[in-house]
Amino acid sequence: MLSAHSYAIHYIWLVMASTIAGVMNAMAGGGSFLSFPAMLGMGVAPVQANATNTVALWPGQLTSLATLRGDVRKDLLPAIGVTSVIGGVVGAEVLLHTQQRTFLHMIPWLILIGTLIFGVSGYVGKWIKSRAEHPHVEKKIPSLALACSLFPVCFYIGYFGAGGGFLVMTILALFGMEEMHQLNALKVFAAMTSNFCAIVTFVVTGAIEWRYCLISMVFAALGGWIGARTAKRIPGPWLRGFVVATGVVIAAWFFWRQA
Q1: pTM
Q2: Of 39, 113, 217, 249, which residue is least crowded by CB atoms under 10 Å?
Q3: What is the mean predicted confidence (pLDDT) over 97-106?
């Protein structure tokens, strides 16, 4: 149990971390690297902390999709939608059946993996963008092959999620999709759908700590508004470097605690 003084400090940090996470997600991504450990700091069990953090940050994905809906490639929606639903539910179910101690030991590895994915995303993003700069014909993508390739990613999004959206973009690019706006819109659609199905699973099973979720949701939304207004003023490489450094430091801290 946390003392009253310690609880107050952790609560203030939850508010700050949620706000900063909203800013990070609006600017570059990676907000979970801060908000998830802050939720753990409130004394929430690891599995429930991850579930609660997923719910708190989800509304930002919904508003992003609303903004990008005109760029969604409708012929791919059935394959991506079904895969996202199944992957999100299965990932959430596996999370809920993971022992708290096991998940706690997995946390630094999951954060480190998410950080590495985010770190290389800039280089792969440049590769995708370079392809998009050349004239191209929209290619037909086989639905079954796409669904099979996306399922592990959607499972990961439902289970933990950090960096999962970028993996969706990478797979779509490998299948020949080149238009950046379409890639980004489908990435948000897949991540939002997988997370929504995970959220429904978490809510039905009572895995959400609502007293912390609602406050985190409000301040993450505030941070998203701030981030959207200031994103263009900060160089992209600085933002990416900050997110990667944050992820590495937090992963190292968890490894140190478990040593």
Answers
A1: 0.75
A2: 249
A3: 86
CA 255 distance to own-chain centroid: 21
| pLDDT of amino acid 144 | 87
- The closest alpha carbon to 49, from 119, 83, 98, belongs to 98
> Are 47 and 209 within 8 A, CB to CB?
no
Residue with tokens 């990613």: 153
Q: How many CB atoms lie within 10 A of CB 190?
A: 28
Of 221, 233, 147, the closest CA to residue 190 belongs to 147
Residues recorded for the chain: 259
Query: Sorting pLDDT into bands at 50, 70 and 90, what band is 87?
Result: very high
Burial of 1 (0-12, 13-18, 19+ CB in 10 A): exposed
| DSSP codes joined into one string, 153-184 | HHHHHHHT-TTHHHHHHHHHHHTT---HHHHH
Token digits of residue 72 = 């969604």
| Tens-place pLDDT, residues 200-225 | 888 888 889 998 999 988 888 888 77
CB–CB of 148/78 below 8 Å? no
**Using a CB cutoff of 8 Å and minimum separation of 24, what contacts does 237-241 make?**
237/122, 239/24, 239/27, 239/28, 240/28, 240/118, 240/119, 240/121, 240/122
How far is 26 from 18, CA to CA, in rounded Å? 12
pLDDT above 70: residue 127:
no
| Diameter of the chain measured on Cα atoms | 62
